[in-house]
Amino acid sequence: VDHCPLGLVPTRLAHAIKARDLDLAAKYDLQACRECGRCTYVCPSQIPLLQYLRSGKTMLRLAQDAAMRKE
What we know:
Elements: H1 10-18, H2 22-27, H3 38-42, H4 49-70
């Protein structure tokens, strides 16, 4: 949180994305991420957080597109 300029919690987002819980990722405001990469840079465990966030955004976008096609 300290390093994210938007105050997001990238580890929570990554856990939601790994669990494929897109509703939770959306609740944690995944779309607000500007993909600056600070979270990945400062992660002491060297978790590729930015990659998770990018793939989560893609999954969320695909799910929204599929939902719109059903309507």
